[in-house]
Structure to design on (829 residues):
């Protein structure tokens, strides 16, 4: 079945701003093979795939397709070589029709320059039929389920006669039946000789669908082989390395009084029946898959979303929070996810980002005291180990980890009793990640109440006293941090299991 | 870790000198452009450097200059205000009426300030609470304010009947005309407001990333209403000068295209259309550049019909240069 390798990447090296991201990484994918690419966040998977996709250029190393050297100088070249990249965030235009998305950028036109709509629809139908699905090509994409959107991307790849499809965590936003559909599709593709590189964190899925695997850790190749001969534990160990991430950082200590009490929060279509309490000194984790509603839930608590019902009590007082400012005043802070969109003000300097939420602390007679601001920043710079040469540069010049630390400093300066972290280690390298965990722990020790939202089960296992699992807007389980296993968390987060009794 | 740091150090230093140079260019490009145009003008026509001509330029730009200060603030926040010219006329007409009715200059000034800020406040309300795009909201205000001014004045001019009103725009302190002094003072005040107070900080923040500003606990709606009210206030200051200068205001021809001149000055001054980046001082020099260009074309007898062409060209060149950085 597996013949000569379709793709070989040899000794690829890449560094960004002098920081090596890939160190002599090689990858071989045979024709008709489903190859799992594994590794923790920041291990270099995306960089490697971006090199294959022509987005980045390698500093060293070569790429061969069907035994011939190729240079992926831009995404177009890569596409012409038969490589298609299906990103985690789907690149479909919701306001266009299915066939229009399929042919976007390569529309069929008649000699007069008019679009050949019927021909495009016919070809779309053909490919969709091959994949065994029945959608009207003239349907608007915005009306389709997520899994169908993915399908459009896959169909697009087939339309371009792709021989290799890269799928970056395709199942994160899919429900179970949709995952099944996707896997069936992948098997069909495999039969027709298309190779797939499959990036995922979900080892079970990998065991189910993949033939071979490659594991990266901190930019290095640490293992490769056939899935059949390995058990999942060995692969996990390879990914994690010195099993740092298994180690629980948080230990038991006594909690203070309840500071936050949430009672029966509901919001149409986002979450329902949310009830939980948070105590002083406690770290709560909320985890689940994409679409579980946890981000929306805490955005509501923080006053960013206003349409919800239910009671919120802070320090035993009923509060009504309809603006983030009121959340601040009530003692609630939120370090949001997607730093770039939600947290950093890229045109403001590092110092000004730090002081943004608490300018009152630096004012005298209505004027901002720049000196005071600067001194305060230096305090946080030491405390959080923020690496910045000149804090007057704009914040977008810093690395992700340092940006995140500045945002944390911003909320520490506000000094609220409760701090919510949404995906606090998103896009951050391993070292900075650890520092952020340490900060979170020391906050709890100082008596703050902390909530962490994360899609990564190991993260909440590592730092949380209690873990809430959410599935499609509902809390499905409340687990003790030290007892919860990743399997258990996943089974609650995927909705395949739920706690019988009501959680209160 | 320490190893990596020592290796990176020299690398960083060369990059900082490089970034300093590019910083210098990006911070002061408008001043450099100003100097180039100033020197070119001086070489092309000796009359340009005449002190009376210089003061004349300042006098001519002072009204647009004050309007442009407000426009800078609104554009820094990511919005735009097209209604400035119309509101200026509206304010002028109403305040002259108020003055003629009461015989008090003080009432005229007070009316102007209140009416101007209120018009701005309405703009702000539409943008912040009504979630109408600023372009549309202020386009509506532009049409409405002009129309009411025309209706009240029956399409003509209204003149002041109180002696002493003209003193405001037609006196001078030492060699500077009052309007010029008012322009300078306003520039300084707006500069302080934007760089030394939390209002300014919030304007930059929401212009750069509105969602992040909101999630930082900034009352984005209130800041926006404040911004448009401030523009209205500055427009009314400009309206008082404009009216006082000739002791009358024309409902049909005063304030026409002021929004375009103000936007041009802001853009030449290096403020980014989408907000978040730009400087009050940039606008100050942008205004001066426009003034010099107008003056040069007059001195060189360029047809007034062609002057718009040159202005348009300069704006586009300015933006092309800013894209380079």
């Amino acid at each position: 079945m597996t013949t000569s390798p379709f793709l070989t990447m040899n000794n690829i090296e890449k560094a960004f701003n002098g920081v090596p991201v890939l160190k002599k990484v090689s990858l071989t994918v045979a024709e008709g093979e489903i190859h799992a690419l594994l590794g923790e966040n920041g291990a270099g998977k995306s960089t490697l795939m971006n090199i294959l996709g022509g987005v980045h250029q390698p500093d060293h190393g070569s790429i061969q397709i069907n035994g011939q050297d190729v240079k992926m100088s831009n995404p177009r070249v890569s596409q012409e070589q038969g490589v298609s990249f299906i990103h985690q965030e789907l690149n479909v235009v919701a306001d266009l029709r299915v066939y229009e998305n399929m042919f976007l950028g390569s529309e069929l036109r008649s000699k007069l320059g008019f679009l050949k709509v019927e021909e495009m629809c016919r070809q779309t139908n053909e490919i969709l039929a091959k994949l065994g699905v029945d959608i009207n090509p003239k349907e608007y994409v915005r009306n389709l389920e997520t899994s169908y959107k993915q399908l459009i991307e896959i169909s697009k790849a087939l339309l371009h006669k792709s021989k290799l499809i890269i799928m970056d965590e395709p199942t994160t936003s899919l429900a179970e039946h949709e995952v099944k559909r996707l896997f069936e599709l992948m098997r069909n593709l495999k039969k027709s000789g298309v190779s797939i590189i499959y990036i995922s964190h979900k080892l079970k899925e990998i065991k189910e669908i993949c033939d071979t695997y490659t594991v990266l850790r901190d930019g290095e190749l640490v293992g490769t082989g056939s899935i059949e001969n390995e058990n999942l534990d060995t692969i996990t160990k390879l990914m994690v390395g010195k099993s740092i991430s298994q180690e629980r950082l948080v230990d038991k200590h006594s909690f203070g009084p309840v500071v936050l009490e949430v009672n029966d929060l509901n919001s149409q279509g986002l979450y329902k029946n949310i009830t939980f309490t948070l105590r002083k000194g406690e770290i709560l984790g909320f985890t689940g898959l994409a679409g579980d509603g946890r981000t929306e839930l805490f955005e509501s608590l923080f006053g960013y979303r206003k349409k919800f019902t239910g009671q919120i009590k802070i320090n035993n007082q009923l509060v009504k929070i309809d603006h983030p400012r009121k959340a601040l005043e009530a003692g609630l802070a939120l370090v949001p996810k997607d730093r770039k969109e939600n947290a950093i003000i890229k045109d403001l300097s590092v110092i000004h980002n730090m002081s943004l939420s608490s300018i009152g602390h630096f004012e005298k007679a209505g004027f901002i005291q720049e000196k005071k601001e600067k001194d305060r920043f230096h305090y946080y710079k030491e405390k959080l180990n923020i690496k910045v040469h000149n804090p007057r540069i704009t914040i977008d010049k810093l690395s992700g980890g340092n940006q995140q630390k500045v945002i944390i400093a911003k909320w520490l300066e506000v000094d609220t009793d409760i701090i919510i972290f949404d995906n606090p280690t998103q896009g951050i390298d391993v070292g900075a990640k650890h520092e952020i965990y340490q900060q979170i722990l020391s906050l709890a020790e100082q008596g703050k109440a902390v909530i962490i939202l994360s899609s990564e089960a190991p993260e909440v296992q590592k730092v949380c006293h209690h873990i809430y699992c959410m599935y499609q807007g509902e809390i499905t389980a409340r687990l003790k941090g030290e007892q919860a296993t990743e399997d258990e968390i996943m089974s609650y987060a995927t909705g395949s299991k739920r706690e019988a009794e009501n959680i209160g | 870790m320490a190893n990596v740091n020592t290796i990176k150090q020299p690398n960083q230093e060369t990059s900082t000198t490089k970034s300093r140079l590019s910083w210098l260019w990006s911070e002061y490009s408008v001043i450099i452009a100003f100097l180039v145009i100033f020197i070119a003008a001086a070489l092309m026509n000796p009359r340009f450097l005449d002190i009376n001509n210089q003061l004349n330029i300042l006098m001519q730009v002072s009204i647009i200059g004050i309007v442009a200060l407000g426009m800078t603030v609104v554009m820094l926040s990511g919005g735009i205000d097209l209604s400035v010219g119309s509101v200026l006329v509206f304010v002028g007409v109403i305040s002259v009426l108020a003055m003629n009715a009461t015989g008090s200059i003080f009432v005229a000034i007070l009316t102007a300030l209140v009416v101007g800020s209120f018009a701005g406040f309405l703009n702000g309300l539409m943008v912040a609470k009504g979630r109408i795009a600023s372009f549309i909201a202020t386009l509506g205000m532009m049409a409405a304010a002009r129309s009411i001014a025309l209706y009240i004045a029956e399409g003509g001019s209204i003149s002041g009947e109180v002696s002493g009103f003209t003193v405001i725009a037609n006196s001078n302190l030492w060699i500077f005309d009052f309007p010029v002094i008012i322009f300078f003072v306003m520039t300084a005040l707006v500069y302080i407001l934007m760089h030394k107070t939390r209002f300014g900080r919030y304007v930059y923040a929401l212009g750069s990333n509105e969602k992040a500003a909101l999630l930082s606990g900034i009352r984005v709606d209130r800041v926006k209403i404040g911004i448009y009210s401030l523009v209205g206030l500055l427009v009314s200051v400009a309206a008082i000068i404009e009216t006082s200068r000739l002791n009358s205001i024309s409902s049909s021809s005063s304030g026409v295209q002021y929004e375009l001149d103000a936007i041009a000055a802001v853009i030449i001054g290096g403020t980014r259309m989408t907000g978040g980046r730009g400087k009050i001082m940039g606008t100050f020099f942008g205004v001066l550049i426009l003034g010099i260009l107008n003056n040069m074309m007059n001195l060189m007898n360029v047809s007034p019909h062609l002057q718009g062409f040159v202005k348009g060209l300069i704006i586009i060149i300015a933006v092309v240069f800013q894209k380079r950085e």
Summary: Residues 1-13 of chain B have pLDDT under 50 and may be disordered.
